[in-house]
Amino acid sequence: MTDRIFGSLMVLLAAFFIWAAFQIQLSFITDPLGPRAFPIIIGVVLGLCGLVVLLKPDPEPEWPQLSRMLEIAAATIVFLAYGQLLPELGFLICTFFAGGYLAWRLGCGWLEAIVAGAGTSIGIYVVFHLILGLSLARGPFGF
Amino acid sequence: MEALSSLAEGFGVALTVQNLFLAFVGCFLGTIIGALPGLGPSNGVAILIPLAFTLGLPATPAIILLTSVYYGCMYGGRISSILLNIPGDEPAMMTTLDGYPMAMKGQAGEALAISGIASFIGSFVATWGLVFLAPMLVTVALLFGPAEYFALYLLAFATLGGLSARNQAKSALAAALGIGIAMVGVDGQTGVPRFTFGEVHLYDGIDFLVAIVGLFAVSEVFLFLEHRGDRSGPGEEKVKITGRIMPSGAMLKDTSGAMGRGTVIGFIAGVLPGAGASLGSFLAYAFEKKWSDKDKSFGKGNPRGVAAPEAGNNASAGGALVPMLALGVPGSGTTAVLLAMLLALNITPGPLLFTQNPDVVWGLIAALFIGNVMLLIMNLPMIAIFARVLLIPVRYLMPAVAMISFVSVYGISGSAFDITMLVIFGVLGWFLRKIDVPTVPVVLGILLGNSMEVNLRREMTIANGDLWALVDSPISIVLWIVAIGGFVLPIVMGRIKKQPANVSRADAEAANPD
User: CB–CB of B397/B236 below 8 Å?
Assistant: First the structure.
């Protein structure tokens, strides 16, 4: 079933891709093939492959239980929030929370998770920023 | 011999304090990255790329650092295979078959030593292979025009899934997806935006480094979140090296044949398009089992079953560098990552690299010889230090991996938009790995998609739109035939590579590809 859904999605994606390829403006400089042709070929290949997956699906993969799916969804949200908050709060604070959250979800106790979050955050800050000079996001307190 | 004098000049490049230090750091980190389950060559090298950038390293030192990591991973992967029965990365999967039983019999020290020596022989011979084979390939590749390059890219994509993937449709789909992603951005030849939907951030295209770190490193974190608790994981079992740390002369003599055969098979598997170290170690083990398993002791702790796959995966790592450097067409995940780094530094691998930047190529090769000796020393007398890293529990390791991935990507661009893209690619990578769509063709598509199109359009411009020009020369005809054959044959013959039964599905899924 997964493959059938995935295959249909890919066929739809391919259709959208080909449609979008036809929307590409043509410029006055051009070559025999132009900017549309190759994407259209790729779209066709994608669609055909999607169709094969749709018609000849593999055995069902082992999907995790709903709780684990939610786990992954929650981690995704945390990561997205991390990216958004990074310019606001700075590297150390954001990484402390994100790293601690991950450590907690991977099986640390809450105290251990706080230590892991702080360790990850400070460790990366020291190695990558102080020693190697990589620029990290600066927060309101300058770190 | 011209190659030998070039190599001598390469040693001149490699033997600077900085380059020796970077080779050492790379070997050391590589062994650790290889040993830790969840970190392997492809994601380990990927998250180190920004580091190479921010240190302001020029191309030669940067590639020396990252390729040393790649070589180091091939050594390191075996440590957790032998001591914990968990492959440290995908190429080390076959080493669990006889390595872990040897450790159970109290011969962990011998297993580590034999595999370390096998790793050395494999890499050493393969690096010599690189010295002689790459320049030969370059002489052929210098004859390539746009049509031949187009056919070569096609060959790379067509054969990528072939030997190791289960489903050709899914491999091709993955490649199309990657090439499709590469199309996003302003078209280099006519200057019109494509698939940007008015989003300014997309005009530059999607940064391949973001895609690579997302698909290889962040997806790994999701896999670990999914499998929390289902797997024994390191840090929870006893890691102890039992037995002699140096093997007896008799055992060395007994396994020398296996090392030799493993090396040859591994190197060939590495050079072939679409095959990396995982396939090399698989074929080496399978062949050795057929060749010398007379008393049916393979799988029960036969040292030859440790020597062959380890020689095999190290030799393929060296072999895989041949097409990457000489043609600019990588055949495996990690060589794709190495290519990405060179492209990001404005160095295009391929035949011209050998004539225009010989210092990069030969400096790298010389550094690999030196690094290989360092690795042998690290992995024989000092093995106990590296075995200790297995005590780091996943619940501390994976948050660090995730956060370093974010730091890496942020370090290149400093944009929150790229972090969002990174997360999207991470989820995509997790999903694709779950449904058995390989991620390496996606990465290769993103990397090579534009060059493939450029070559096609260039040929069409030269030939005035005549499609027959694509199959006009003997070289391109051969490439087309190999491409089509490489795509169709696996469908007819079925899957060659199988996963060993003693490795759990969760471990196999989480083992980082090479």
Answer: no
Q: Is B234 helix (H, G, I), strand (E, B) or coil?
A: coil
Residue B260 CA to residue B247 CA, distance in Å, equals 17
- Across the interface, whether the CB atoms of A71 and B225 are under 8 A apart is answered yes
- Reference B340, options B91, B78, B45; nearest CA is B45
Question: Which residue among A84, A107, A121 places its CB closest to the CB of B395?
Answer: A107
In a 3-state reduction of DSSP, which class is residue B185?
strand
Q: Which residues neighbour A56 within 8 Å (Cβ) at sequence distance 6 or greater? A: B169
Chain A residues near residue B191 by CB distance under 8 angstroms:
27, 29
Question: Which residue, B68, B8, B51, is CA-closest to B363?
Answer: B8
d(CA B160, CA A50): 18
Beta strands in A51-141 (DSSP E): none
Show residues of chain A in contact with B508, CB under 8 Å: none
Q: Nearest CB to B398: which of A20, A76, A102?
A: A102
Q: How many angstroms separate the CA atoms of B513 and B43, rounded?
A: 8
> If chain B, 514 residues long, is cut into consecutive pieces of 10 residues, what is the mean pLDDT of each piece?
86 91 93 88 87 82 92 91 87 90 88 93 94 92 92 88 72 93 89 86 87 91 82 56 78 89 92 81 89 83 91 92 91 89 88 89 92 91 85 86 88 84 94 89 92 92 88 91 87 69 72 74
In the structure encoding, which two tokens stand for residue A36, read together? 């549309």
What distance in Å separates the CA atoms of residue B418 and residue B52, rounded to the nearest whole number?
19
Backbone angles phi, psi at B49, to 5 degrees: -55, -50
Tokens 């696996």 locate to B490
Q: Taking each helix axis from N to C terminus, what angle separates A110-124 and B394-413, rounded to the nearest 10 degrees? A: 40
Contact A117 B399 (CB under 8 A): yes
Q: What is the 3-state secondary structure (H, E, C) of B55-69?
A: CCCCHHHHHHHHHHH
B29 touches chain A (CB under 8 A): no
Q: B484-496 in b/e burial notation, b at 16+ Cβ within 10 A?
A: eebbeebeeeeee
Q: What is the DSSP string of A29-62?
A: S--SSHHHHHHHHHHHHHHHHHHHHHHSPPPPP-
As given in the structure block, the two tokens for residue B506 are 């969760």
- The chain B residue lying nearest A102, using CA atoms, is B399
> Counting every residue, how long is chain B?
514
Facing B403 at nearest CB: one of A24, A95, A137? A95
Please classify residue B290 by burial: count the beta carbons closer than 10 Å to its beta carbon, then call 0-12 exposed, 13-18 middle and 19+ buried.
exposed
Model ipTM value:
0.94
Q: Across the interface, which of A68, A103, A124 has its CB nearest the CB of B396?
A: A103
The identity of residue B310, as a single letter, is: E
Are B273 and B159 contacting, i.e. CB atoms less than 8 angstroms apart? yes
Q: Where are the domains of chain A?
A: 2-55, 66-131
What burial letters (b/e) apply to A97-113, b meaning 16+ CB within 10 Å?
bbbbbbbbbbebeeebb
**Residue B113: predicted pLDDT:** 92
The answer to whether B190 contacts chain A (CB < 8 Å) is yes
Q: What pTM value is reported for the model?
A: 0.91
Tokens of B418: 């790229």
Is residue A42 within 8 A of residue B180, CB to CB? The reply is yes
CA distance B135 to chain A (A): 32
